[in-house]
Fold each of these.
Amino acid sequence: MAHLAIEHLTFAYAAAAERKVLNDVSLQVRQGEYIALCGRSGSGKTTLLRHLKTALAPHGVKSGRILLDGQELEAVSLRDQSAAIGYVMQDPDAQIVTDKVWHELAFGLENLGTPEDVMRLRVAEMASYFGIQDWFHRSIAQLSGGQKQLLNLAAIMALQPQVLILDEPTSQLDPIAASDFLNTVRKINRELGTTVIITEHRLEDIFHAADRCVVMEHGRIIADDEPRAVGRLLKEQRSDMFAALPSPVRIFYDAGFTGPDCPLTVREGRSWLTELTAGRTLTTALPQEDIPAGKRALELQNLWFRYEKDGADILRGVDLRVTEGSLHAILGGNGTGKSTTLKSICGICRPYRGRVLLHGTDIRKEKDLFRGKLAMLPQDPRNLFVKDTVRGDLMEMVAGDPHAEEKIARMAEICCIEGLLEQHPYDLSGGEQQRAALAKVLLTEPRLLLLDEPTKGLDSFFKEQLGELFRRLLHEGVTILMVSHDVEFCARNADAVSMFFDGQVLTTTTPRQFFAQNSFYTTAANRMARHLFPQAVTAEDVVYLMKENGL
């Protein structure tokens, strides 16, 4: 008998009952399995996961059933579900309910009526296991995004669940914190035998670890097999999802290789390349990159900022120059001040020292800054939604314009949200919300576009489209400044990359120079091939050099 069974589950949101978000989904999950759930944004992954816990299940029209150890889920009490099924969401702040770390760890146990001696032992064990001792008594407001998500996981594991469900848990984490978090999840599965069902858009750290990879498309399951078989199937089907697979898999197939020996991990890929090139003299030259030159669209001069008068400085002398018509990416760890810098540029935060120059003019002298001059897409796109439909939110930006409908239709096509215009923004998936929010800010026709984690929750297919959209905007004279943890996207699309640390910009250089010299803030393709092709930072770079060397 399956530990968790989904049988012919079909679901549609009440507001759009004719559009089936889930369409006859059936899935069997055995005790202790590690399932990677993949699919494009809007394919139904999050909706499916939310149905696995009735307290989180969305409202709508549903048929089919879900069984936990042979019992229908609706018949299992909410208390028993809370103890048996743990759920970690995309947004760390959406799940935290208390103000102190130790209280958050104990909160779920308190609500289940756990005896105090047992509760104290569980909390102590989880704090030790997850390395939380050093910040056990801290205020949660002082934690970084990575620490908050780790706290969420620890609080869930204190309940000793049989099933752990994770919905894009690293979408707001930097590469190092994301890798650490996913390694911890794998350790929980391997050492405690906890069943894990996880959905992630960046598959580098979970694809190889999964017992099975389940791929969804348009509300259906189109593949369910071990990772190597799924990679081969997606390549044969020329599926859009192939672009989301780990770099070693894409390099293997895109370089023209076939067979059962496809590498899944960086380590396997490095060994495969080493054997393939043994005894050869290799050409490693790639086209030269230069930081864009020209007029400055944006200049930050010695910015200092703190949130509280007597608090610590968040920005500590930030200097940055962004060239007109370029895409400039800022990378760095959680809590270093990247988002605060964007807020300082658009006036949400006001530095107590330094200047922000927009096309040579101090922003304090700019009038109507957010009309045709500057726009910002915040980290949480829901902050932009104020209407009952996506169309209503877009119409707000072009109200009174005689060409409003035409502009909305064009922007909906550009951002791939044509079929979402009549839906409530909060009924959309994380990736769909991100695209709808991007469409809304672009309707202001800004000359400088500020983006805080624009690829968060987006599938690889739309990331490619987003890259094309950015190139179109750059060609039209728009300048883009982007804060991101997505090193793969930055490597492929940025013109210049800056490293942010300790409240300041440490260095600015080209993507190839930046990623080729880093150990952790770099791409999987570079880690896989740097011993042979030091300057290759994308899968395309590696494939190009392989073909140049006749491999």
Amino acid sequence: MKKDYIIDKTFCSFLAVSILTSIMQQVRTMTDGIVASQFLGPDALSAINLFMPLDSFMYAVMMLFALGASFLSAQDIAKQDFSAASRQFTVAFISSIAIILTIVGICTLFFDNLISLLADRDIPHIYSLTRDYVSVMLAAFVVQTPMVVLCLFANSDGNPQRVTLSMLVTLVVNAGLDFLFIGSLGMGIRGAACATIISECVGFGILLTYLRSGKCSFGFTRVKNFLSIFRHILSEGLSLTLGMMSSGVTALLLNHIVMEYYGDSGLFVIAVAIQILALCTMINEGINEIYESAGGMYLGEGDYSSFRQLLGRGNTLMVVLVGVVTCAMVFVPTMFLNIFGEYDTQSVEREDRYLSIISLVLIPYFIIYVNTRIHALLGFKRLSIVFNILQAIALIAVPFAAATINKDWFWWAFPAGMAILAAIQMLTTFVLSKRSKLRSRLLLLPLLPNEVSTKLCINYDIESVKQALLDVRAFATLVEMGEEKTNRAILCCEELICNILKHCSDRVNGGCFEVLITDFPDRMEVRLKDAGKPFSPTTFKNGEFSEDGSHGVGLRLVKAMSEDISHKYMFGLNITTLIFKK
């Protein structure tokens, strides 16, 4: 459909790099597990799995400030408030590093207690491997923290390609060093951790080049109201990261329950399941990056209909991916066990059944996960926090209770508990939506924007342009801009649309461009979006006015008649914003 063209271009241009970036964050850990288990045996994977609760917790702490700040920054960038975006970045960067350094210091001080919490001394070989791995990986968190902050802000700035390049190089370096340190140099599991630290340093260096390039919309700046922004970011990010923190606690408790009832064999199955679950979660995180970045732009514009369509595309894709992975785990579980180094025939026969049963948890788990993230983005933070906590409780309490009654019920309790909780969540959101007729039934999405707005999807032909200009005039008259300012808006839109038609149109495949007009109490905003090649309709091809004044008359008029004009290329779109004050 024509009205979906710009949204499709935004979604597709961001999708590959966003998901690839998120997947690579998990693939690095999986690479450590696969390479280490191939050289050191299945116990190496179990040791890395025992580290994952700490890894999940620390990653959630990194995201606590970075995630909320990048979401707020996306809205600031959409409003052309780049100084506010820089303040968000500065506060998030400093706060994240400070808290990670504090936690790493505490972990180092109480290192023996930390290892005893993660691993069981009664399984000495796995305990020793866990200790060796964690002792080196603590340093990796210090490097990873600023990298995570830069990744999220670069995505919010509409430039995920640089993030993908950084993550791809990090992944390649990590994999190569894993084979070198473990296979060739015999450094054992410590070698995997050393490879991670070195690769993180390389990736961080690549991201710094973007920060220093002058092309980004944010940077370090002096912040006078640091505590106020800190509290705002913390409030925004807390509900979004609680799920990550609870997953770390969940994994920790699950490891201990499984070790008690099923020993090292059950621990290996849980390790494989958690690796696959974490990979699917990272794919979903990639889709969530689109929600928080491109979606943040739409929310900042007040374009709620585009936000809803963006969610529809992302959720549909996630359902398909999770369905495929679930079917693969149900019908060919042996493949996953072999990948992680388990080849013993008797063990595989027993572990196949466990893995195929626990795989059924994926679909209800992600129904809850996606809904809680979307609810948090839309301001329903308490609802998001409640179901994050309930999800962690269900993953622990239900299997534990089932195992105390009948040991064979343990694996079936995972999908059963999640399915019940997913049904409760959908019922809860349905009841809440009935209280407000302006919210959708399941996701509580706004059905109407806070401001009066209209979106025009324009074909690349003169008749469509003429109709669009009439619609702009009708809207300006409706919001009582006055005859003089209405005429100014029409002339400005006509000049910029002609530039789009001439220089950067994407006419193939039934393309179109958009004009979004929004009425605010003090101003009217006109935003033009074109999915063609990078080109600013506010400048000339040579970037300069002609000396005799024969060229650039239209641009001079646009700058004179609008209170403000700006352009930015992000999410694969040319986005030009005009502001007319009332």
